[in-house]
């Protein structure tokens, strides 16, 4: 690093709390504060042995570090103030009261706040898993009483005294999801190893996904922030995997051929475009369960075009129909669903696994048929995929080598995290259940926890600027999403017990939107008492440490695990409990 670069870094760091102008795409939210400027993070150095010039640069870096420390000593604990109480349940990209018909994510930069999201009055340490599956604190939720009034007859939830109780009911299974799953089990092999990942569309409070856990099936539930308000917040407070989303015009932030089972209970009108998106997400041989008041004529007219087969149709509190996708590639010539490569060109094949911000259309992608086996969690069958983000080598042997290396390194890091409070029995004062990995890679962190039978679930996030590894995460039998960390995550405030940030210094969005913005988003989604796990270069730690101090986080432990070839710091910070 040149001396000029070092001076620039120091100047940028000293202006840490200087106001930044708001984006003009929408009238700025009146939160009483301005967003701080970006904090520059030095680019990651190549992991090679140092030459003589490198040794000189290292001395300059040490000088810069000393200067930086002197500049940041004046940062005080609590420098980031709390927003007003009206932002307690703030989800920037999903709450647009004036546009109730627009349910999809819509990012507006000015809605991202530079203050801390406050907990609601009376916030209480969440109920521990597995008790949280059936009851949670009323004081931690927004709109639970309104939801009870709207959905009480469908047995979604009951509010009693200080708790919200979940009896397992849903729109199409008022007697409970357990009884509904027994009904579906006559046609779908829920108890076999053939089904591991499921997607529940319009999931309500996620009782369907909660009961699928007893079958060893990991379900990603989603619903919009609509008139039913905080249904996904209820799901996450229960400890059930869930996210905010809606299937209206754009693809879901998920890779192709990811789910063995897709469930839709009284979904909105399912037209040709939406069916094509469901087909993209469904594995060959996978099942689609549709429950509604009457059998869908629209779907029945289109399934043959997609090479689906209707295998079950029966009336039960309405009508339930089950379809199965062909196990072999669909060769049917279809006017409604031509192959995307035929309709738009061969280059569109890579788009099936880069769905971020894409509008869906009525065409079919070819989907890989990956067979799972008992050891898939550690080393799945490797898809022969293209480098969709232009970075990941496509050859399966190279992918397998990288996956093994990541697994070994992650095991080492996890041992340090456990020494500093990250364990199955303790995450602050609340217990550990919901975990997010912000740069998940191949999902090794989640795979180790799953293999060790730690009672957690992990939302594996693959940033849109990172190598496209999310297909391999799903092939392990895990779940996750694509995301741009310059935007807010698809979740409510205070919904995760632990968040892991690893190797962010190589990401372009750190320069694009600033490290402060990213860390404020971590603070938004992390529960009081929750843990923030960090692993990256020492330069990144130096930039992050004063921000965590300003947020009032406590350092449980810091470990330098540098080698002769590269520097590496591990840290665990804990958010202050209420």
UniProtKB/TrEMBL annotation:
Bias kind Polar residues: ranges: 49-69
First-tier enzyme category under EC: transferase
Topology within the bilayer: Single-pass type II membrane protein
EC number, UniProt record: 2.1.1.-
UniProt keyword list: Glycoprotein, Methyltransferase, Signal-anchor, Transferase, Transmembrane
Chain spans, region Disordered: 27-69
Gene Ontology MF annotations: methyltransferase activity
Protein name (record): Methyltransferase
């Amino acid at each position: 690093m040149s001396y000029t670069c070092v001076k620039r870094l120091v100047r940028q760091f000293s202006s840490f709390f200087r106001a930044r102008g708001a984006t003009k795409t929408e009238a700025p939210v009146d939160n009483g504060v301005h967003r701080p400027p970006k904090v520059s993070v030095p680019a990651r150095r190549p992991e090679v042995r140092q030459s003589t010039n490198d040794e000189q640069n290292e001395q300059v870096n040490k000088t810069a570090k000393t200067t930086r420390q002197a500049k940041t000593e004046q940062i005080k604990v609590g420098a980031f103030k709390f927003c007003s109480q009206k932002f307690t349940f703030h989800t920037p990209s999903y709450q647009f009261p004036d546009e109730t018909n627009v349910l999809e994510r819509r990012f507006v930069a000015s809605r991202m706040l530079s203050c801390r999201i406050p907990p609601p009055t009376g916030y209480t340490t969440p109920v521990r898993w597995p008790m949280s599956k059936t009851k949670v604190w009323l004081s931690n939720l927004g709109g639970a009483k309104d939801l009870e009034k709207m959905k009480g007859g469908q047995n979604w939830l009951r509010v009693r005294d200080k708790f919200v109780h979940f009896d397992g009911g849903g729109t199409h299974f008022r007697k409970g999801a357990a009884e509904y799953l027994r009904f579906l089990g006559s046609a779908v092999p829920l108890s076999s190893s053939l089904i591991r990942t499921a997607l529940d569309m319009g999931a309500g409070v996620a009782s369907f996904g909660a009961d699928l856990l007893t079958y060893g099936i990991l379900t990603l539930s989603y619903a919009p922030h609509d008139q039913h308000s905080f249904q996904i917040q209820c799901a996450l407070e229960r400890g059930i995997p869930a996210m905010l989303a809606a299937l209206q015009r754009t693809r879901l932030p998920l890779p192709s051929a990811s789910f063995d089972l897709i469930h839709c209970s009284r979904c909105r009108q399912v037209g040709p475009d939406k069916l094509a998106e469901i087909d993209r997400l469904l594995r060959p041989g996978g099942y689609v369960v549709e429950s509604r008041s009457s059998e869908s004529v629209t779907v029945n007219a289109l399934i043959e075009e997609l090479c689906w087969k209707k295998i079950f149709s029966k009336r039960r509190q309405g009508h339930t129909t089950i379809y199965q996708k062909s196990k072999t590639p669909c060769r049917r010539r279809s006017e409604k669903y031509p192959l995307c490569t035929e309709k738009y060109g061969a280059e569109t094949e890579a788009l099936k696994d880069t769905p971020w911000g894409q509008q869906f259309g009525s065409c079919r992608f070819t989907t890989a048929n990956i067979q799972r086996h008992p050891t898939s969690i550690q080393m799945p069958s490797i898809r022969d995929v293209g480098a969709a983000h232009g970075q990941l080598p496509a050859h399966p042997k190279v992918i397998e080598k990288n996956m093994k290396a990541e697994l070994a390194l992650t095991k080492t890091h996890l041992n340090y995290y456990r020494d500093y409070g990250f364990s199955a029995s303790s995450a602050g004062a609340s217990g550990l259940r919901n975990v997010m990995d912000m740069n998940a890679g191949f999902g090794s962190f989640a795979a180790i926890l799953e293999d060790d039978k730690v009672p957690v679930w992990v939302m594996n996030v693959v940033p849109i600027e990172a190598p496209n590894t999310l297909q391999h995460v799903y092939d392990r039998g895990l779940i996750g999403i694509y995301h741009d960390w310059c935007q807010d995550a698809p979740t409510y405030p205070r919904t995760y017990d632990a968040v892991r940030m690893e190797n962010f210094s190589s990401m372009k969005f750190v320069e694009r939107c600033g490290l402060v913005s990213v860390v404020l988003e971590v603070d938004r989604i992390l529960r009081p008492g929750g843990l923030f796990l960090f692993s990256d270069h020492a330069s990144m730690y130096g930039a992050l440490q004063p921000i965590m101090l300003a947020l009032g986080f406590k350092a449980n432990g810091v470990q330098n695990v540098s080698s002769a070839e590269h520097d590496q710091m591990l840290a665990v910070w804990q958010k202050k409990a209420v």
